[in-house]
Write a structure and sequence with these properties.
Layout: H1 8-13, H2 18-34
Length: 44
C-alpha cells in the first residue's frame, strides 16, 4: 500500500501534540483496522 503524505492539519498539530498524533495513528489506523469485525475501507 502506498504511503500518503501527511495532511496539512497533521503538520499543524504535530509541534503541539506529537504523542497524540502518534497514538491516534497507531490505535485508529493500526489496531482498529486489524480487528476481524472492522471493515477495511481501503480494500477494493
Amino acid at each position: 500500500m502506498p504511503v500518503t503524505p501527511p495532511s496539512p492539519a497533521r503538520e499543524q498539530v504535530w509541534p503541539i501534540a506529537p504523542k497524540l498524533i502518534e497514538l491516534a495513528e497507531k490505535v485508529v489506523y493500526g489496531d482498529v483496522w486489524e480487528r476481524p469485525g472492522c471493515r477495511n475501507v481501503t480494500a477494493a
